[in-house]
Design brief:
With about 325 residues, this protein is an alpha/beta fold. It has two domains: about 160 residues, Medium-chain alcohol dehydrogenases, catalytic domain (Quinone Oxidoreductase, Chain A, domain 1); about 120 residues, NAD(P)-binding Rossmann-like Domain (Rossmann fold). The protein contains ten helices and 17 strands.
Length: about 325
């Protein structure tokens, strides 16, 4: 048997349970990966709490969650020639990453950079690809000024670094305790709250060229005062205000090519993956409690490095 973390109905973090499942078998064009680490995303918490799923995707209970992972290929499906058993990979999928064994399309994994710690590899894909997509959609170029809201979070930390790699200047909103962190990434931090527009204008008197928002709310109200072209204000969370404000919704477009570009930048020293805390797979509920506080610097990751006590997937009982 293999272990996965699933929920049987939406609810608080306590609904997450370690369950025993049959080891999955890869289909044609797939590989099986023995997971070493899986990133924890706000989207994972939304799936668990509200039964949220991307458009066109339906939950199937017991539902295993998690959308990014890193591990070692241990079985090949028919037609897979570009990978080999023993390859260390980083991958992405819609659900199912909180598990010891995962099957995944061969086109959804890339080689893990040698020397990259497992927790960083497991936490790279989701926030990294979202940030990369966002800067592409916003058309950010060298010499421009970008304002990033929630700049110390998962998407924000990635966006700051990717924007700097494009030659842009970055201002990031964050709590004051995170300003040194932003400075280490090449951004200037400003505090949230009343007076935000004035604080940003003190650094950019003519406003900024583009905004990437990862917090919503009042940050979006400030953004429309700072950017002339509202199509260059993108949000990854405030979709309920897109029509009202005339701003751009950002939805990630994940691909192996995009992920490989992030890995190349990491190997070149131009990208860091900041994992502020790791949890054993069995402690996924604790990780969800942490991410729902909304003050995580960078990312959280689940580590799979020992057998997990589980329950059969067909019955209840919390762990």
């Amino acid at each position: 048997m293999s272990t996965a973390i699933a929920f049987f109905e939406p609810g608080p973090p306590e609904v997450l349970r370690a369950v025993e499942v049959d080891p999955p078998e890869p289909g044609a064009g797939e590989v099986r990966v023995r997971v070493r680490a899986a990133g924890v995303q706000p989207a994972d918490a939304a799936a668990r709490a509200k039964a949220f799923a991307p458009p066109g995707v339906e939950l199937s209970f017991p539902q295993v969650i998690g959308n990014e992972l890193a591990g070692v290929v241990d079985l090949l499906g028919d037609g897979v020639n570009e990978l080999a058993v023993g390859d260390e990979v980083i991958g992405f999928r819609t659900f199912g990453a909180y598990a010891e064994l995962v099957t995944i399309g061969a086109e959804q994994v890339v080689a893990k950079p040698p020397g990259m710690p497992w927790e960083e590899a497991g936490a790279l894909s989701a926030s990294g690809q979202t940030a990369h997509t966002a800067l592409e959609d916003l058309g950010l170029g060298a010499g421009e000024k970008l304002l990033v809201h929630a700049a110390a979070g998962g998407v924000g930390t990635m966006a700051v670094q990717l924007a700097r790699a494009r030659g842009a200047t970055v201002i990031g909103t964050a709590s004051e305790r995170n300003h040194d962190h932003l400075r280490s990434l090449g951004a200037t931090g400003v505090a949230y709250g009343e007076g935000l527009v004035e604080r940003v204008r003190s650094l950019a008197p003519r406003g900024v060229d583009a905004v990437l928002d990862a917090i919503g709310g009042e940050a979006l109200d400030a953004s429309v005062e700072l950017v002339a072209d509202r199509d260059r204000i993108g949000t990854v969370v405030g979709f309920d205000r897109v029509a009202e404000l005339g701003i751009r919704p950002i939805r990630t477009r994940r691909s192996a090519a995009r992920l490989a570009e992030l890995c190349d930048l990491y190997e070149a020293g131009g990208l860091r993956v900041h994992v502020s805390r790791t949890f054993p797979l069995r402690a996924a509920a604790d990780a969800h409690r942490e991410v729902e506080k909304g003050h995580v610097r960078g990312k959280l990751a689940l580590i799979v490095d020992e057998p997990v006590t589980a329950e059969p997937s067909g019955r209840g009982g919390e762990r």
